[in-house]
Amino acid sequence: MSSSATSVATESEIRSPQTPGPVLLMGAPGVGKGTQAKELVKYWGVPQVSTGDLLRSNVAQGTALGKAAKEIMQRGQLVPDSLVNDMVEARLKQPDTKRGYILDGFPRTLAQATWLDERLGGVQSALPLVAVSLQVDYNQLLRRITGRRNCPVCQTIYNIYSNPPKRDGFCDVEGAALVQRADDTERVFAARMTAYNAQTAPVVDHYRNLGRFVEVSADGPIAAIAAGIVAAVERLRS
């Protein structure tokens, strides 16, 4: 883990809710972004804005943006930044984002980060985006991913290192043989980490240079990590 990671705050250090503004939650595969996003949504009372959810929602609802995205995906192509930006633009115009929101999966590239900064800069009342990167040691992340097993019947998730079943290889609830996802292997994880670091490094540098970036340790209890994120955002907003 980076030596510059902030120390984790305790639950008692969380002060009363403030207006968080837009918060980008970053982190490598397996770091726990989804879990922390849910904690922050509950604490601040602001929505989570996930580009994956936006894409699925637009396609399912048959919006103009969704139809365009579906056609592109059916050709086996990646949805371009411009179309993703348009979906995010539409979502951020909804009233529940007024006090802020937790961004998940966006901005993923420097071009997206630049676009978002320009958009927020054009809204008089908008706070600038702050980026929080969750940090966990590589070997710990590897154990989280490669140790993951799930029950094909009840979908209970175990980890052979940190949360093993009572009977090795079998679900405590259903007694079914546990399975490992095909992409939960060391080779796939290493490739995902390489891609993540290459893609997000320019985004990290962008917000670090603007003084709107902080690293927070994601090693510890869920509530304590959430407290660390809240404290970090408050420092960036002060």
Q: Could you walk me through the main structural features you see in this protein, from its secondary elements to its overall organization?
A:
With 238 residues, the protein is of the alpha/beta class. The chain has a domain at 11-137 and 218-237: 3-Layer(aba) Sandwich (Rossmann fold), CATH 3.40.50.300. 45% of the residues lie in helices and 13% in strands. The protein has eight helices and seven strands, in the order βαβαααβαβαββαβα. The strands form two sheets. Strands 2-3-1-4-7 form a five-stranded parallel beta sheet, sandwiched between helices. Helix 1 (33-44) packs across helix 8 (222-237) and helix 2 (51-61) crosses helix 3. It is globular and about 60 Å long. 29% of the residues are buried.
The CATH class of the domain at 11-137 and 218-237 turns out to be Alpha Beta
The share of residues in helices is 40-55%
Multimerization status = single chain
Named at the architecture level, the CATH assignment of the domain at 11-137 and 218-237 is 3-Layer(aba) Sandwich
Low-confidence stretches: 1-17
Major β-sheet strand ordering:
2-3-1-4-7
**Proportion in β-strands:** 5-15%
Shape descriptor reads globular
List the helices and strands and how they pair.
Blueprint: E1 21-27, H1 33-44, E2 48-50, H2 51-61, H3 64-74, H4 81-92, E3 100-104, H5 110-121, E4 130-135, H6 138-146, E5 148-150, E6 157-159, H7 186-209, E7 213-217, H8 222-237
Parallel strand pairs: 1-3, 1-4, 2-3, 4-7
Antiparallel strand pairs: 5-6
Helix pairs in contact: 1-8, 2-3, 2-4
